[in-house]
Design goal:
The protein is mostly helical and about 375 residues long. Helix content is about 50%, strand content about 10%. Bound molecules: protoporphyrin IX containing FE.
Length: about 375
């Protein structure tokens, strides 16, 4: 479903953005495309919403897009978590904007919940998506696993959010890296063409053969791990064995008493020379021939609480990148006199909100001549 909907949404994007009639397009902020794509895909596949590129989700009164409201609410949550004093000092206009975004989002979610409840009670819904299951758990009074209204909305928010922001950031970073490193883009396109050719429709069986497309996405995610911090609380006294710095044998014991919270610094993990040679370098080839679910790739976390959306995200990414790169050559839009290195420093720089991403990525897309990578 994710595969098919992504292909469909890519085609909608090309038509709606007017790309079909153009040979070259400048996109000042590629995130405008990747965020819209990812929100539509989680909305359609995880929630059974019937949105499309020209009619994206909006609040019930139509004043604000859900994408915009999610963005503002997520940013304000980050402020509330890390800088409560700043939040108090925010100008009134900004506070009003946050309040409005919050109301719009709640209005949107409540109306979706009400619609789905009505569909379920009228037995009109044959949907089996995560959203329907959450709504059913809210309705079902016979089980101790019932979700109250607040839990329902909270879960909807986190799934909508986790299900699109992370993937959208990583797609933007991937395209930025491929624009910068034309040789890697070329190598990826060669694999795409050898697997799917220039014209035929993609089928899900292609996914497993497009390991280089997955690798460019994985490597962008390693360098900008969207889930940049993992928080755990010790449920009992324990001792962590911390490996000594490279070159020194053994470990150093680190006691963690019960109740202490431990933060895992995912950026530190992904740049640790113990696991990666030349960690500062964008090298997709480190992921070639590594199985899709391999624990060597840890940016989705590993273990029982690892990301449940890993396959969702990689399926979406491979489908979208394959379609896009087969049709379009990607290049950075440089400012006057700017070198590619300066572009990299300016653009492929960490931007931290609730998740980690890169700054606004300005890219030029040029239509490929069929038959020529
Ligand atoms: C590039 C894309 C993504 C990245 C990098 C990512 C990363 C992560 C990470 C690191 C965690 C563990 C968080 C922790 O332990 O504190 C996580 C958990 C989670 N992710 Fe993702 N994620 C991505 C895409 C998605 C998608 C597409 C969905 C939904 C379809 C999703 C839903 C979730 C959920 C529900 C959890 C919580 C799982 C649990 O606690 O058992 N994620 N994700």
């Amino acid at each position: 479903m994710v595969w098919t909907e992504t292909l469909e949404t890519y085609r909608e994007m090309i038509a709606a953005e007017g790309w079909s009639k153009k040979d070259s397009i400048n996109v000042p902020v590629v995130q405008t495309l990747t965020f819209k794509l990812a929100l539509l895909i989680i909305g359609k596949c995880g929630f059974g919403f019937s949105f499309n590129w020209t009619a994206p989700p909006t609040a019930p009164d139509g004043t604000m897009s859900v994408q915009e409201a999610l963005r503002i609410v997520a940013d304000s949550h980050m402020l509330a978590i890390f800088a409560p004093k700043w939040l108090l000092a925010l100008p009134f206009r900004r506070l009003r904007e946050i309040g409005e975004a919050h109301d719009q989002l709640m209005g949107f979610m409540r109306s979706q919940v009400a619609n789905r409840k009505a569909e379920i009670s009228a037995h009109e819904s044959t949907k089996n998506d995560a959203f329907t299951m959450l709504v059913k758990a809210n309705e079902d009074e016979s089980t101790k696993l019932q979700l109250d209204d607040q839990e329902l909305i909270g879960n909807v928010f986190i799934m909508l959010f986790a299900g699109h922001e992370t993937t959208a950031h990583t797609l933007a970073a991937t395209l930025g890296f491929l624009g910068l490193y034309q040789d890697m883009q070329q190598e990826t396109v060669e694999q795409i063409v050898s697997v799917v050719g220039w014209d035929r429709d993609l089928v899900f069986e292609d996914y497993a053969k497009l390991d280089k497309v997955l690798a460019v996405f994985y490597e962008a995610l390693r360098m900008f791990p969207a889930g940049h911090i993992l928080i755990r609380e010790a449920t009992e006294d324990t001792v962590l064995q911390i490996p000594n710095p490279p070159g020194q044998e053994g470990t150093t014991p680190f006691p963690v008493p019960k109740g202490v919270q431990v933060m895992v610094d995912m950026v530190g993990v992904q740049y640790n020379p113990r696991y990666f040679d030349e960690p500062e370098k964008y090298k997709p080839s480190r992921w070639y021939c590594i199985s899709n679910e391999s624990e060597a790739f840890s940016a989705f976390s590993i273990g029982p609480r690892a990301c449940i959306g890993r396959k969702f995200a990689t399926t979406e990414a491979v489908a979208f990148l394959t379609m896009l790169l087969r049709d379009w050559k990607v290049e950075p839009i440089l400012k006057e006199g700017e070198t590619k290195e300066q572009w990299r420093d300016r653009v492929l720089d960490a931007k931290l909100v609730l998740t980690l991403g890169v700054s606004d990525v300005p890219l030029k897309f040029t239509r490929r001549a069929r038959g020529r990578a």
